[in-house]
């Protein structure tokens, strides 16, 4: 049994209209699992269900072997970091951090030391007396973090904790989170809709869509082997063509797209059961394409609509088999006024999904 | 910028229209004349002296003060939990209740006063003082609910949830985290409700009786018999007191955004 088990969960804001439907997740101790997905897909709802602010209509929440399904949020030992920090505006940094310790009746003489340690951990020593309104976004963020880890929670839930920070601070905080996670070994569930953040922090990623789990896997699984068209699209396989399967070998599928033949050697889980005649979609990333004059295997005729110069690369808008395709190639835009070209995609860069 | 000149002129007119009567009252209170006249012919402080010497004004001032404070406290005590429930939770009939909270802005005071009179005096037979206190509480209650609701809406519910996730019960979180942060809303509600009570005529008119009057009622009675600047002097004192209290609260707590 895993450390956290959500089984069969139906949960939402109105009875009879669950946002999460028949939801299953299991997380191992010490893992950092990211919930990734577009706005409104139910990431916050999932966290709130785990934290106990939403009581599931159906199903079970088990943490560390104990059934928490009917335990109110103040009795679950779970740390929460909110998207907008939710610091107590009327309390100093010290008192913000001390709040949970005092509620837990930690011996008075132990509190100052615990707070000093945690503030040191998040590099905020010396800020004890400040009010939240006197801190920068990144500092508030770190107070929120300190406040939730000082209680030594069984589990830390973070809801887009870095989304309000600028890019530089976000990078720093991300590194800091990663360090803390390794140092403390806390199990974390981390909500984000930033792909890079999820890929760089997580041991596993859960991609959600409309209250359902589309795919759960390691960052590499998600990024290299997206299991559904939705996930493929989400992780940057922006282009797609449709075709018909012609041949299936062990690690090699041949697909015909409007007279051109494509071979894919990167077959995803779903593609496993393909057979000749199936309609499929081919997904590929803009920067996994190349443009040539020569016909050959894995190429298809296309028309260049326009080119954007982007410094190191050039971005081409193409029309291929009636689809809009974006291709990114290194170097300056091709010279001459060729409009009719062929687009090539490497067999190992092509993903095939059943449609 | 011709347009802006016209706008400024309109602003100035409005200002004169709003502030003018107060200026007239304050100036006429320093008159040395026994009839109300504007502008006054000479200066004196005799009307202020007179105000302080009229026993009925003192008695009714204390009556108004006590009624106002008691009713305001009670209305706040009831209004805070009601506002909290109303802002944080969804329940059936919420719209109807919200309409009720805006009723003082819609239903004329005389109607409220008369209904309260029928209810208290004829139906329940409560003593006059108690009736006055309960009547004022009833008219202040919607005000406190509205002002406290406004400040609660400005307060991120996530902060409360943070407290709960750190181990507070919802009740403890309310006292430890919510109340301290809606302090200025509470003060605003208090001041607004108190001033409303202190100024109220229509409801008090029906609920006062032999030997029990509030200051505004006493002022009306006085004016029926005398038409001298005493009332101007008294009004000026009240204006200045109100301005001082509201200004102090605004400086300290920035309450204007809730009013
Ligand atoms: N308090 C609420 N009452 C009713 N419905 C809600 C409430 N909060 C969220 N929802 C609905 O639940 C669904 C999931 O919302 P949720 O907040 O979990 O999304 P999210 O994945 O966290 O999105 P975001 O990335 O924008 O934060 C949405 O359709 C939303 O409209
Ligand atoms: Mg969210």
Architecture overview:
The complex is a heterodimer of chains A (355) and B (259). Chain A has 355 residues and is of the alpha+beta class. Chain A folds into two domains: 4-230, 3-Layer(aba) Sandwich (Rossmann fold), CATH 3.40.50; 238-354, Beta Barrel (OB fold (Dihydrolipoamide Acetyltransferase, E2P)), CATH 2.40.50.140. Chain A has helices at residues 43-51, 93-103, 111-121, 137-149, 167-184, 195-201, 219-224, 229-234; strands spanning 4-11, 20-27, 32-36, 58-63, 66-67, 78-81, 155-159, 187-192, 204-209, 212-217, 239-249, 252-257, 260-264, 266-267, 279-284, 289-292, 299-310, 313-320, 323-330, 340-345, 351-354. In chain A, the strands form four sheets. Chain A has a six-stranded mixed beta sheet with strand order 6-7-8-3-9-10, with helices on both faces. In chain A, helix 2 runs parallel beside helix 4 (137-149) and helix 3 (111-121) crosses helix 4 (137-149). The mean pLDDT of chain A is 89. Chain B has two domains: 1-44, no CATH class; 54-258, MetI-like (MetI-like fold, Orthogonal Bundle), CATH 1.10.3720. Chain B is 78% helix and 0% strand. Chain B has helices at residues 2-29, 46-53, 55-88, 94-101, 103-106, 109-124, 128-153, 157-165, 170-181, 183-199, 202-207, 215-225, 230-253. The chains are: A alpha+beta (355), B mainly alpha (259). The A-B interface holds A 51, 53, 73-74, 76, 78-80, 82-84, 86-90, 99-100, 103-104, 147-148, 151 and B 156, 158-159, 161-170, 172, 177, 180-181.
